[in-house]
Give the backbone structure.
Amino acid sequence: MQKFLIKGNRALKGEIQISGAKNAALPILAAAIMLPGRSVIRNVPNLLDVTTIIRVLRALGLKAEYSQSKPNTVNVWNYQVKHVAPYELVTKMRASFFVIGPILAVKGLAKIPLPGGCAIGSRPVDIHIKGLEALGAKVELEHGFVIAKADKLRGGKIYFDFPSVGATESVIMAAALADGETVIENAAREPEIIDLANFLNKAGAKIEGAGKEIIHIQGVNSLAPVDHAIIPDRIEAGTMMMAAAITRGDMKIGGIVPEHIEATVRKLQESGIYVELDGDSVRVKNDDGFRSVDVKTLPYPGFPTDMQPQFTSLLCLAKGTSVITETVFENRFMHLQELKRMGADIRLEGQSAIISGVEKMSGAPVRVPDLRAGAALILAGLAAEGETLLEDRDHHINRGYEKLLEKLSALGADIKKVS
Ligand code: UD1
């Protein structure tokens, strides 16, 4: 159990730098299973989910560790790969399941535990499986494990009913070493998918169209080790933008890719908050308050579901009534109950939260139900009057944010861990 104490109502001001993207680092580290030899991956955020995927790689027989001398650099030595992924790690973090494609591609057999449910929704893996079957794999479920077999994967044509990020990544990885051409239609277009494709292309893969709806992959016989730097974390950037807005602060957030945060920028501007992009940085300033807006989460380039809880916290303090509709996950509103404890006025109707803005929120003891909800509650605590005590039983916040407390403190926040 981890607890954070926040003394709120302080404007955050100053400059910060964004870390590497967790959601790009996880599939790229999984893809290292397909690159024999030593690969170097830079700009890897040092956080719990990355530590978990590193542990998965080790359990599979690879050597992987953060460099002692170069910050945020992970070295991977790959000379053997086992085909069974450990239950205790895969059930801990859903993204560990993404090793199924790479293991199947190099071993012809992969035995991976079902990742199981997750607080924000049922999150099945049927689209991953459908994709691997289209490449000729035989997939069975046995004693809680997904067992995928294929002496040699062969290219195929796949249409995704939903543009799943993870399934797009699983199929890209498996298809990179298949015989012949694979075409994915209705693929997810997230920037993390482009980063994965760039990583694999550097290693010798032939992937075209990543970031678009149709991706073509021409299978190759083998891949070579590479040196690659991970893209910046657009969700961390968005969270910091919300921190500036909700605390009526003034922040310059550096190391961003403007295109990746466009939906968040537009929604903040629509609510009347000052946002200015300048090269690879963005300034967010709010001294006049802001008004309500409606938002619907969608796959990229739509408004990210991973920013929905943080934006909900912000809109609790807007002038007027906002409607937030969640279309990607079916149970991603667990922060609402906690925000209400802090004085927010929110009503849940189906998949929409109807938020009537209040003048102020007040600090309260709250529980962190999942990673981004935790970020949302920190934001609310930073803006609220008085003290907020966050109970984070499962270390959700450490899973997804690198040095969050240090970064917020440097901007003037009063936030600390307490026992
Ligand atoms: C990734 C991100 C996560 C983000 C999500 C949506 C990583 C490590 N995680 O998760 O932070 O919130 O994208 O942007 O990159 N689904 C199925 N069957 C499947 C796969 C998914 O029904 O086989 C459903 C899910 O339950 C969910 C929706 O599709 O409702 C989106 O999931 P998906 O895009 O696959 O998300 P992840 O890759 O798990």
The longest strand covers residues 2-7.
